[in-house]
Design a protein that fits this description.
The complex is a heterotrimer of chains A (284), B (167) and C (807). Chain A contains 11 helices and 14 strands. Chain A has 284 residues and is α+β, with helices and mostly antiparallel strands. In chain A, a hairpin with a 6-residue loop joins strand 13 and strand 14. The longest helix of chain A has 21 residues. Classes of the chains: A alpha+beta (284), B alpha+beta (167), C alpha+beta (807).
Chain lengths: 284, 167, 807
């Protein structure tokens, strides 16, 4: 459990960080909180010769809220997300989901950027970002570009991020309506057996807007577009919730692991989706 | 391997270490500075035996590289009390049998130390959630929770006494 | 002086903090201040580090090991392979179970994580780099992970070294992958009773493979002082003296030139009983390099390679009359020992004390057979917080009782009560040959049932069931009962030894002139608080306050010989030695007091902390006064000084028992269980320190919760370990752990000097059955008879699914 040797860089701005990435190519990796990366390095599952610490770059830290637009710097930690009262008022689901990630110490260092950017399907934030229809801002040698979270993930640990690009911020519109993030796990510190997030609005008993997403139920986070299509404009009743749940489960594609076989995970997915829907509706 | 200098303040003392960049903070503390209170139980950030306080936050020092701690204020279990005047948490762990083999204890105490500053008046449930990043194999946590609750009382009482004295 | 109040008898007694006192622990000052001294804290001048190249595959022939790149790396000093150890005869080592084990892979590897080469370097970092540069060529072989396939005709032969040996350490071997058959009881008579019985329940009960996983992993620092010819090894040793003897036997270093030191140990739970390749390689490396070598395994190494526990497939049949009187018990166990038989059992008991499997019940006839087999898994089979295989035995009988109750249509609490060994039957000889020392099972059971309001619980459960059936709830309630009888304190030298070493233990006491004392024992604490509790035993025996007695363990140069701490043997054996040594001190003190008071020995009586003249209590000598006199008075016929040593060979084991109840609510859709209540009544005989007893029970229950509800060492079909980190190997946090209610009855052991029986392992032994029975109980109304542990979410979900509860 000892990583191989690397050189360490702590650039003060994003341009320097990007230029290091350009210089070293795929031998370089950025490190944010390190709680996904360091365990992998310790097992020598990855060969990193140059480690670029982003913690010295102040411009990519912190939470900005202008009207209804929320922008979160990539180096903002989970605990900062949890403790920010303004953010809680605008997007309470962030606190609800963040508290279900890892444990207190890990949340103190773990960042939103690290959580969304490394492409681990077990991470919770990518699913949440599907739900919020967030936009990721990436900075690279060719400049800065925006990518929709729903278009960012290609497969487990594969994203559209170029080798020399660094995720610098995440932004989204403050959601409105009821919300819930439901996660079944074996214990504190575990990844989800199945997790689901729901945000929806009900007006005159009709669903006027909806978003549903899943975590750790496929090799990427899943935005449940089919389920959303089903529920939009419909009257909320048990029948429609069952249909929506089924559509979500249909879009899931989990793999068997120590948490259980595929059949079990799909079943539990249905349960957490139903729970999230129910709780979100209660909160509208 | 090439070494770099890392400067950090540990238990109030500024330290300059010459280490490989890949040196884990827990090894820097234990092997370079001889603060052996923080222990290694899993090396994968699950057990919390290596918990220390870094810049006012509890962190697992097995999952931090030493250069990431450059310029930081580190507090370990060796720095919160003295043999003559134990910290209230240390005292209450002794009083309520909050430890057995002692291996998780420094991490557990350091987590409690920070937790009680974040939440000076916790419920039992909040204590359990607050220390959920620290594993103990001996106690079943019941007496640890009791110790932390008692420490919270004691710290509040001490603060009240101080206030009165100032008044 | 008259106004100075003479302390009363009670006050003097309480000043001792002796037996029965919840004395605060003396160990805690250093542990709470981060000043413990664990093996990884040891730093010696010039010390190098060592670590292993481990096999990534479960079964393969070693074609080649190329160490050149590793050796070329700056900072790497040596790389040891089996070829280097062979000239020393150390490429294999004897196991505690009479088998032998490769220290470093010799020709082939037999399990994933097996030690292949040992790299020595400047620090952990250089060593890790060296490890990654050792190139090993493996030719993979077919893998055996299923113990029931190990003995098939065409099964791959795992242990080629002993393939032709028809006779093993424990008798005949019928297949190259077969280790032993061990039998107890009356086979034919049991079969006859079963054939003729009115009711027979037949079930396969599996106790899965798990791991003790103390928070501190195993490790050592070996230091060969070539100038003085002395080898010192600090290590995570639960049995330091036995390690010294074994080290001497296998290394040919004379035993007096070996010093084994167990420093503070960060939990053991059986994991630190054995001798591991890391210790041997560190010693050899220190001899080769001439400097101290530190080896500390990491968590993945520990879970993959260092001493698993359980893995017993127990097929049982239990018979009874229609009224529920048990008439017979039959058990055949298939024991998966992994690649080497490295179980830590007394020599004559290759399946440990599995023959305690008649449990707390008066069963007239029984038969047990255990077959051990080799598979491509890690060796071990240690007693994880239990006496040798007692948890397996207890789980087996407590499941069989439940299954029988189901078959009889009888409440299992009633069935237990009907078949308990009665108080007046003690000492009781069981059908499988043990003599139970004492117990009052009915008293314990009735107290437990009353405390939890058992009748009310069953009514609540029925309501919950109705609500489930009515479609109003998706939750079921389970009530898990268990009444266990342990067999601990191994043990009488006549039938208990490890590698020929009788399982006595020892205590040596020296009283200092000013009346304080030091006592040394052959055991070693790993969190049990020996320095606190053994001083309490002594305080009550010799009248010196516990706070004036230093306890030392774990240094073979200073402590008397003992077999160490595991199997709840410290209190029953070393605790007894302590009391007996104290009594020797007292006997000499009596002679000194008689001289000082100018009376005959027989005219004195012991009174808490002094000898006083019978009928004239104002004439007395305190132990403190006597101690001083022993150093400065020339007493005719009495040697100066006040010291004693006692080697205690227990006449029998002790038999702690207890009644546990677990209540849980299970969500049939998610498989998530919510523990509502855990009640644990323990009878460990005389209670030395109630605070520590309670702490032991809390900890053991949490291990039981972990084992029954999720903790396992799982392998896939290729022999890959699937649970190598603390993410997948379940250890509950404070969040998943409930609060516990503890209770007790006190039935002293009649043969133990102070009546104590030991308690550290009871909650694991009793707890696993109670948790597992609760899960089974929830699904009993739907016909579930047996579902294997661990009862993690998906397996519980599977029970519900298979019973058609998901519609």
């Amino acid at each position: 459990m000892i990583p191989s040797a690397f050189t360490f860089y702590k650039p003060e701005n994003i341009e320097k960080a990007v230029s290091l990435m350009v210089d070293f190519g795929d031998e370089a990796r950025v490190i944010a909180g390190g709680h996904s990366l360091i365990p992998v390095m310790k097992q020598r599952l990855t060969d990193i010769k140059h480690l670029i610490d982003l913690s010295g770059i102040n411009e990519i830290k912190g939470i900005e809220i202008t009207d209804n637009r929320i922008s979160i710097g990539a180096m903002t930690t989970q605990v900062e997300l949890i403790n920010n009262e303004e953010l809680f008022k605008k997007a309470p689901i962030i606190r609800e989901a963040s508290l279900q990630i890892a444990d207190p110490q890990v949340r103190n260092l773990g960042t939103i950027g690290g959580n969304v950017a490394n492409g681990d399907p077990a991470n919770d934030m990518p699913g949440l970002m599907q739900l919020l229809d967030a936009t990721y801002k990436l900075s690279g040698s060719k400049g800065v570009r925006d990518v929709k979270a729903r278009e960012f993930y290609e497969g487990a640990y594969f994203t559209v991020r170029e080798d020399d690009e660094i995720l610098i911020s995440i932004s989204f519109e403050a959601p409105s309506g009821g919300y819930a993030y439901e996660k079944q796990k074996r214990k504190i510190g575990d990844y989800a057996t199945a997790a689901a997030g729901v945000i929806l609005k009900v007006e005159n008993n009709m669903c006027s807007s909806a978003s549903i997403a899943l975590t750790n139920l496929s090799d990427t986070p899943v935005y449940c577009n089919k389920a959303v299509d089903i529920i939009l404009g419909k009257e909320i009743d048990n029948n429609i919730l069952t249909q929506v749940t089924e559509a979500c489960v249909e879009q899931s594609d989990p793999v068997a692991d120590q948490r259980g076989p595929v059949e079990f995970k799909k079943y539990v997915a249905g349960i957490v989706i139903k729970k999230a829907l129910t709780r979100a509706i209660e909160r509208t | 391997m090439e070494k770099i200098n890392v400067i950090m303040t540990v238990n109030g003392k500024e330290e300059t270490l010459s280490v490989e960049p890949r040196t884990l903070l827990v090894h820097a503390l234990r092997e370079h500075l001889d603060y052996t209170g923080a222990h290694i139980g899993c090396s994968s950030s699950h057990c919390g035996a290596c918990t220390i306080d870094m810049n006012g936050k509890s962190v697992k020092s097995c999952t931090v590289f030493a250069p990431q701690a450059e310029g930081s204020e580190i507090l370990t279990v060796e720095g919160i009390g003295s043999p003559d005047k134990l910290h209230a948490i240390q005292e209450m762990f002794k009083e309520h049998h909050g430890l057995q083999c002692g291996y998780c204890t420094p991490g557990m105490i350091m987590r409690s130390y920070r937790f009680l500053q974040e939440n000076p008046n916790p419920t039992e449930e909040e204590v359990r959630f607050g220390i959920s990043g620290n594993l103990c194999r001996c106690t079943g946590y019941q007496n640890i929770v009791k110790s932390i609750m008692a420490a919270a009382d004691k710290i509040r009482d001490e603060a009240n006494v101080e206030k009165k004295e100032i008044a | 002086m008259d106004d100075v109040k003479t302390p009363s008898r009670e006050e003097r007694k309480s000043a001792l903090s002796g037996l029965g006192t919840s004395r605060k622990r003396v160990e805690d000052a250093r542990f709470t201040q981060g000043k413990g001294n664990y093996v990884d804290d040891i730093k010696l001048k010039g010390m190098l580090f060592g670590d292993f190249v481990r096999s990534p595959v479960a079964h393969a022939r070693l074609k080649n090991i190329d160490t050149s790149a590793a050796l070329a790396l700056p900072g790497v000093h040596a790389v040891l392979t089996a070829a280097d150890l062979e000239p020393l005869g150390l490429h294999w080592m004897p196991t505690l179970a009479g088998d032998k084990q490769m220290v470093l892979a010799d020709g082939k590897v037999l399990f994933q994580g097996q030690e292949v080469a040992f790299v020595v370097g400047d620090d952990r970092y250089a060593v890790a780099d060296g490890v990654s540069l050792v190139e090993v060529e493996y030719e993979e072989l077919p893998v055996v992970t299923d113990p029931f396939k190990a003995e098939l005709k065409d099964a791959p032969i795992l242990r080629e070294d002993i393939a032709d040996q028809k006779e093993g350490a424990h008798g005949a071997r019928r297949h190259p992958n077969h280790i032993f058959t061990w039998e107890a009881g009356e086979k034919e008579q049991t079969n006859k009773v079963l054939e003729e019985a009115e009711v027979v329940a037949d079930e396969m009960v599996y106790y899965h493979r798990t791991h003790p996983c103390p928070l501190e992993t195993c490790g050592c620092v070996a230091s060969m002082d070539k100038v003085n010819g002395k080898l010192t090894v600090w290590g995570t040793f639960q049995a330091p003296h036995a390690v010294r003897t074994v080290a001497s036997l296998i290394s040919s270093i004379p035993e007096h030139n070996i010093r084994i030191i167990s420093p503070d140990i960060g939990g053991g739970f059986g994991n630190k009983v054995g001798v591991y390749p890391g210790y041997v390689c560190s010693i050899v490396a220190s001899i080769v390099t001439g400097v101290p070598i530190k080896w500390v395994e990491d968590r993945m190494d520990n879970l993959m390679a260092t001493a698993f526990a359980r893995d017993y497939w127990m097929h049982g049949k239990i018979s009874a009359t229609k009224e529920g009187k048990i008439t017979g018990l039959w058990c055949h166990t298939t024991a998966d020992h992994g690649a080497f038989d490295a179980c830590a059992d007394p020599t004559k008991f290759p399946a440990g004390f599995m023959n305690i499997c008649t449990g707390s019940y008066d069963i007239p006839v029984a038969y047990l057979a255990v077959d051990g087999v080799y598979t491509n898994k890690a060796p071990g089979g240690v007693a994880y917080r239990c006496s040798f295989r007692v948890t397996e035995a207890s789980y087996f009988i407590e499941r069989m009782i439940e299954v029988l109750a189901q078959k009889l249509g009888m409440d299992s609490a009633e069935l237990r009560s009907k078949n308990f060994i009665k108080k007046e039957q003690f000492p009781y000889t069981s059908a499988l040959g043990w003599e139970y020392d004492s117990g009052d099972y009915h008293q314990a059971w009735e107290k437990a049932m009353k405390s939890v309001n058992y009748k009310q619980l069953r009514e609540d459960q029925a309501k919950q069931l109705q609500s489930f059936k009515d479609g109003k709830s998706r939750k079921l309630m389970g009530i898990g009962l268990s009444h266990f009888t342990e067999i601990v304190g191994a043990g009488p030298v006549k039938n208990c030894d490890i590698l020929g070493l009788g399982m006595f233990d020892a205590c040596e006491i020296r009283i200092h002139p000013t009346g304080s004392a030091i006592a040394r024992l052959g055991t070693i604490s790993q969190g049990q608080g020996h320095a606190t509790t053994f001083a309490q035993i002594l305080a009550s025996e010799i009248g010196i306050p516990a706070s004036d007695i230093t306890l030392e363990e774990g240094d073979t140069d200073t402590a008397p010989y003992g077999l160490g701490t595991y199997g709840s043997r410290s209190t029953p054996v070393a605790g007894a030695a302590t009391a007996m040594a104290g009594r020797k001190i007292r006997a000499k003190a009596q002679m000194i007091a008689a001289y000082l008071l100018e009376v005959h020995d027989d005219d004195l009586e012991w009174d808490v902390d002094r000898f006083s003249v019978k009928g004239a209590p104002e004439k007395f000598k305190t132990m403190k006064e006597i101690a001083f006199a022993s150093y400065n008075q020339a007493i005719p016929g009495v040697e100066p000084g006040l010291e004693a040593v006692s080697y205690y060979d227990p006449p029998n084991m002790t038999y702690p028992n207890g009644a546990y109840v677990v209540v849980m609510e299970i969500d049939v859709d998610t498989g998530v269980s919510d523990i509502k209540q855990v009640y644990a009544l323990d009878d460990c005989g005389t209670r030395i320190n109630p605070m520590i007893i309670e702490g032991q029970v809390h900890g053991g229950l949490t291990e039981a919760l972990a084992i029954s509800m999720g903790q396992e060492i799982a392998y896939d079909e290729q022999g890959n370990v699937m649970t190598g980190t603390l993410m997948d190997f379940f250890i509950p946090t404070a969040w998943e752990t409930p609060n516990y209610e503890t209770d007790y009855t006190e039935t002293p052991s009649p043969h133990h000097p102070i009546g104590a029986k030991g308690v550290g392992e009871s909650p694991n032994v009793g707890g696993v059955s109670a948790f597992s029975n609760a899960v089974h109980d929830a699904f009993k109304p739907f016909g579930l008879t047996q579902a294997h542990m661990p009862h993690d979410h998906w397996r519980v979900w599977k029970i519900a699914k298979d019973l058609g509860l998901h519609s």
